[in-house]
Amino acid sequence: MKRILVINPGSTSTKIAVFEDNNLIVSEEVSHSMEELEKYDRLMDQIDLRKNEIEEFIGKYGYKVSDFDAIAARGGILPPLESGTYKVNEEMVDYLRNKTKIEHASNLAAVIGWELSNGEIPIFITDPVSVDEFIPESRISGIPEIERRSLFHALNMKSVARKAAKELNKKYEDCNFVIAHLGGGISVGAQRKGKMIDVNNANDEGPFSPERTGELPVGDLAKMAFSGKYDKKELKKRYIGKGGLVAYLGTNDLREAMKKAETDEYAKKVVEAMAYQIAKEIGGMAAILKGEVDAIIITGGMARNDVFIDMIKQRVSKIALIMRYPGSFEMEALAEGALRVLNNEEPAKEWKL
Ligand SMILES: Nc1ncnc2c1ncn2[C@@H]1O[C@H](COP(=O)(O)OP(=O)(O)O)[C@@H](O)[C@H]1O
Ligand SMILES: CCCC(=O)OP(=O)(O)O
């Protein structure tokens, strides 16, 4: 039996779990309010806060770090890399701590894992957000100075794609899927024969989401940026964190938005527009797969809401079979990635800059 500690820091919470082989033994999610995290100027200043929570969790359930065979940490924003499980090394920790260009809570995981392990046990990351399987034409943005980047919910999307292939009784590498992760941020991608050949950058492209604006009309955005009303940090917060449902309805909770939509025409229009934009992205990704789509896979927290998912389905159900995996499978996907390596089913990839 292999025992794995899984750590997954997110923008509003830290998820921690213990797995024994594929079995979840115990898990907790520690929430962080916006006010609590706003006190920290840089993301890396949150290390002690998040590490202490994980240490408390380990102690509370009677474990020591040496009781684990490995730590499985969510991968951060590394330079573009292949899908798979990577062994965390000193160079990766230095990159995430000091060099990465984009601040994202997932950057904390491997760094905290490294400090907790202190050389005692291996640490692995699986399918970080910067997995890049783009084809050349996906990289062209429309202006040479800006290249499109592959930044998406790779861990959960690859995990549900494996589940769907199994359900369809097909090999993962033989399937074509359009996959929509509908969480606080949204990624919709075209996966051809196991490779995500195009996907909207969940931070600044694609549909608007509970917290993010997604793609915006470029001229109007430029005007806003030069209006003098926002500095760089404020503008970024406006499109990631305070955009989408938050901007229109003052909530990032789809359940609340749906409730409002029952009696309020404006809220109804906003929710319908989000479903409309998701359907539009799904249709675009199906076109990239030339219509050869085994299934449209819908996952993430918002996939739990039948009424909302029906708004999407009515626009895309003629394209292909729809498979729904509500919620997020990140914790089990991290444990499974580490297990495949510990059980010698696949070698851990070596990471270097
Ligand atoms: N049971 C549910 N019904 C409807 N919406 C839900 C449900 N559970 C979560 N959500 C919505 O899903 C979104 C968050 O999805 P989640 O995958 O948990 O996001 P993240 O991991 O990005 O924080 C929120 O808008 C939340 O309100
Ligand atoms: C940057 C792409 C992945 C992403 O948006 O993750 P979160 O929704 O967890 O912030």
UniProtKB/TrEMBL annotation:
Biological process annotations from GO: acetate metabolic process
GO cellular component, as recorded: cytoplasm
Family that this chain belongs to: Belongs to the acetokinase family.
Lineage summary: Bacteria, Thermotogati, Thermotogota, Thermotogae, Petrotogales
Principal location class: cytoplasm
Recorded GO MF terms: acetate kinase activity; ATP binding; butyrate kinase activity
Pfam families reported in the protein's UniProt record: Acetate_kinase (PF00871)
EC number of the protein: 2.7.2.7
Keyword annotations of the record: ATP-binding, Cytoplasm, Kinase, Nucleotide-binding, Transferase
Originating species: Marinitoga piezophila (strain DSM 14283 / JCM 11233 / KA3)
Classification via NCBIfam families: butyr_kinase, PRK03011.1-5
Catalytic activity: butanoate + ATP = butanoyl phosphate + ADP
Positions of transmembrane segments: none
Descriptive protein name: Probable butyrate kinase
